[in-house]
Automatic annotation (TrEMBL):
Keywords: Membrane, Mitochondrion, Mitochondrion inner membrane, Repeat, Transmembrane, Transmembrane helix, Transport. This is FAD/NAD(P)-binding domain-containing protein. The lineage of its organism: Eukaryota, Fungi, Dikarya, Ascomycota, Pezizomycotina. One of its GO terms (molecular function) is transmembrane transporter activity. It comes from the Eukaryota. Its main location: mitochondrion. It is a multi-pass membrane protein. Solcar repeats lie at residues 1-81, 90-173, 186-292.
Length: 626
């Protein structure tokens, strides 16, 4: 069997031996009703004898050892598969997803293990785990061993997602901390601390689910356990006729109705202490066993490769995973340029169900273009690395390289930077405007509007980039192609209204200077209803508005970039070079006309601009400082 199987098995068994006494306290706290609940110290005084603190240990040692082995094997294989499919370096998202899959895979072991353990811990006088298991099987059959399985699976998938996520996050944070190389003792201390924190985060994320699971699995006592029945508040002896057992939802509702929210956090303190100790030791044992089984060298080599990859200066760092960034990456790949593309997952057209005017993708979902472009890059080219994450800082090193730091603490170096970050639209300060944006209020009547053709009426809202009457009239003419009648709304701007009145002479348009109090989407698919301060309202087939925008990310300030009057990144030539040498801009963040085809074209221009300087530079290896 694999090393991670045995490392997981042994560390799981050790964790149970260490943590079982506090787990007994936690289960009894969770299972008791509010009147019977006492402090953990009071519970210790009431235990029948010292042996009661190790009650129910046998089943978890066998079961949880297997569970932990299955967990680590499933996690490691799933993470490798996810990274392979996505073609990215391991991200915190893939770590969480792999942990969730691993947790779900343990369901077949965790449900019967938890059931036997909880019932054994509540038994009085103490009974062995084997006796409890036989009793359940004899009275309820194999199906009875999986009672409470749904809530257990939900708890484990969510909990183990956060388990591996928090461990990975804390280890990355400590690895990124400045200082000399760590000694063996320092590394051991880091593993203990990170493992302990992972345990606490895990239980904090799923403790209410664990309370429900415990109550579901222990709500029914069985033969010879009158004390257990009393502890659970069933009001009957085991010999009394059985009542229908409650499901997780019913149990949660009943617990909340009787005791309020506090019932879902009873025992959390004890559990957190136990979680820190157990998982600190568990991770330390896991890492130690992996090393003893010959995996240490392999893991060190993998870490060295990751560090080397992180430290190696790439040709280009691309910030943004939209059309501009993907176009940049594609053209760089065609020249065998090593590039890293950072995709934050934030896109300006996220609200749009369809995009238009994109050859081959007309009326397609924006996500389909992004996924197809990424798939093509991964299938055909080998020099592009995808990183799903947010770049929080870009600066320049003494060697003249650009350094990008992601939100999870990783650092990347490159010789050039292409900012394809996109922009954020600045919503008009009208209540309801944001809810209508992209649904019935459109910024571009090439991208949207055709689907509303033949509308009886349409509107144009001034303000934002429509700060001059001529622009308002220009947008009105575009709207007139799609609607029978167009009204230009000045929204209380009397000066704009006067300029518009003069500009619309001999046009079919009308001007409405009234101030809009609020707006609502509907009632039609692209209709918008405007409510004025005078109490009246009007419904338009759609509304056109050109908002001002803000460049995404903190890079304008960090790199001291100049902006245009409209708020876009200023470029010094047609190739997208900014006022910071070595930094290029591409897409919506550097051009007035913001559309998918133009954004993609800007990526091509940026590659054309940076390729020459890159080729002429010395190819001598540069040592990257940490």
């Amino acid at each position: 069997m694999s090393a991670d199987f045995w490392a997981g098995y042994i560390s799981g068994a050790v964790g149970i031996i260490i943590g079982n006494p506090l787990d007994v306290v936690k289960v009894r706290l969770q299972a008791r009703d509010a009147l019977a609940a006492q402090t953990p110290s009071a519970y210790f005084r009431q235990f029948e004898n010292t042996a009661a603190l190790v009650t129910g240990t046998a089943a978890p040692i066998v079961g949880y050892g297997a569970l932990n082995a299955l967990l680590f094997v499933s996690y490691n294989r799933t993470e490798a598969a996810l990274n392979g499919m996505a073609g990215v370096q391991s991200s915190l998202w893939t770590t969480w997803a792999a942990g969730a899959v691993g947790g779900l895979a343990t369901w077949v072991v965790s449900t019967p293990t938890e059931l036997v353990k909880c019932r054994a811990q509540l038994s009085s006088p103490p009974r062995s785990s084997w006796a409890i298991a036989k009793q359940i099987y004899r009275t309820e059959g194999a199906r009875g061993m999986y009672f409470g399985g749904v809530v257990t699976a939900l708890r484990d998938s969510i909990g183990y997602g956060f388990y591996f996520w928090s461990y990975e996050l804390s280890t990355r944070w400590m690895a990124a901390a400045p200082g000399d190389a760590s000694s063996f003792h320092q590394e051991a201390a880091k593993v203990l601390l990170c493992g302990g924190l992972a345990g606490v985060v895990t239980w904090a994320s799923v403790f209410p689910l664990d309370v429900i699971k415990t109550r579901v699995q222990t709500q029914r006592a069985f033969g010879g356990e009158a004390e257990t029945a009393r502890l659970l508040g069933e009001g009957r002896t085991p010999e009394a006729p059985s009542q229908a057992r409650q499901g997780a939802v019913q149990m949660a509702k009943a617990a909340y109705r009787e005791e309020g929210l506090r019932v879902f956090f009873r025992g959390l303190t004890v559990c957190s202490v136990r979680a820190f100790v157990v998982n600190a030791v568990q991770w330390a044992v896991y890492e130690w066993v992996m090393r003893e089984l010959g995996q240490s060298k392999k893991r060190q080599q993998q870490q060295h490769q990751r560090d080397e990859h992180k430290m190696r200066p790439h040709d280009v760092l691309i910030v943004g995973g939209g059309p501009a960034g993907l176009s940049t990456a594609t053209y760089l790949a065609r020249q065998l340029r090593a590039a890293v593309l950072f995709d934050s997952g934030v896109y300006r057209n996220a609200r749009a169900e369809h995009m238009h005017g994109v050859l081959g993708f007309d009326h397609a979902a924006p996500a389909s273009l992004r996924s197809k472009a990424r798939a093509d890059l991964l299938a055909r080219y080998e020099t592009t690395t995808f990183v799903d994450g947010v770049v929080t800082r870009i600066d320049k090193t003494p060697q003249g390289l650009f350094r990008a730091v992601t939100g999870d603490g990783r650092t990347w170096h490159g010789r050039r930077v292409v900012l394809a970050t996109g922009v954020t639209d600045i919503m008009a300060p009208i209540p309801g405007f944001d809810a209508c944006w992209g649904r019935s209020v459109f910024h571009c009547l090439y991208c949207h509007g055709y689907e509303s053709r033949g509308a009886a009426t349409a509107g144009v809202l001034t303000g934002g980039l429509v700060a001059q009457a001529a622009l308002g009239v220009h947008m009105a003419w575009m709207a007139k192609q799609l609607a029978d009648r167009v009204t230009i709304y000045a929204h209380g701007d009397e000066a704009m209204a006067r300029d518009l009145e003069a500009a619309i002479d001999k046009t079919p348009f009308v001007v409405d200077a009234r101030r809009i109090a609020r707006m609502e989407h509907g009632p039609g698919e692209t209709e918008v209803t405007l409510y004025f301060e005078d109490g009246t309202s009007v419904t338009e087939g759609f509304l056109a508005h050109g908002p001002r925008t803000k460049v995404n990310g903190p890079f304008v300030e960090q790199l001291s970039l100049d902006l245009t009057d409209s708020g876009d990144i200023k470029t010094v030539n047609a190739l997208g070079e900014t006022t910071c040498p070595g930094v290029y801009a591409a897409g919506d963040n550097m051009q007035m006309m913001k559309a998918v085809p133009l954004a993609a074209a800007a990526g091509v221009m940026a590659v054309a601009g940076l390729s020459g300087p890159l080729s002429s530079e010395s190819q001598v290896e540069v040592e990257v400082e940490q």
